[in-house]
Amino acid sequence: MSTPEPAQSAQSGHSVSASRPDAAASSQPTGQPVVVPAPAPGTEPFVSLHTAVVLLAAVVIGLVVATLTVLSGAHPATAAITGLTAAGASTGVLRNLIR
């Protein structure tokens, strides 16, 4: 079984595989803007990207504060309450900072 020979492009001199004739057309920009279709009704995400980033950052801050509290010698229950308080207090600030 032989492999197909690459066909030569007349304009650019680049070889294009005979098995993929659309390869040359897809690699060159067309100058047209890319249109992304709107999502269908009812397929919106559960939480927005902004909310997810704010909550994730708040959880990380809470975990760091709780870990530092445990390492300082406090009781783990105190560290958990401190971490939850830090996460809760940071959400309002993060919401305004991250836009």
Plain-language structure description:
With 99 residues, the chain is mainly α. The chain has helices spanning 23-27, 49-71, 76-97, and strands at 7-8, 15-16. The protein has a two-stranded antiparallel sheet. Helix 2 runs antiparallel to helix 3.
* Strand ordering within the main sheet: 1-2
Low-confidence stretches: none
Indicate the overall shape: elongated
H/I helix tally: 3
Largest sheet: 2 strands, antiparallel
| Helix-strand category | mainly alpha
- End-to-end span in angstroms? 59 Å
Write the element-wise H/E pattern from the N-terminal end onward: EEHHH
Beta-strand percentage? under 5%
What keywords describe this structure?
mainly alpha, 99 residues, elongated, two-stranded antiparallel sheet, 51% helix
Can you lay out the helices and strands and say which pair or pack?
Elements: E1 7-8, E2 15-16, H1 23-27, H2 49-71, H3 76-97
Antiparallel strand pairs: 1-2
Helix pairs in contact: 2-3
Provide a short characterization of the protein structure.
This protein has 99 residues and is mainly alpha-helical. Helices cover 51% and strands 4% of the residues.
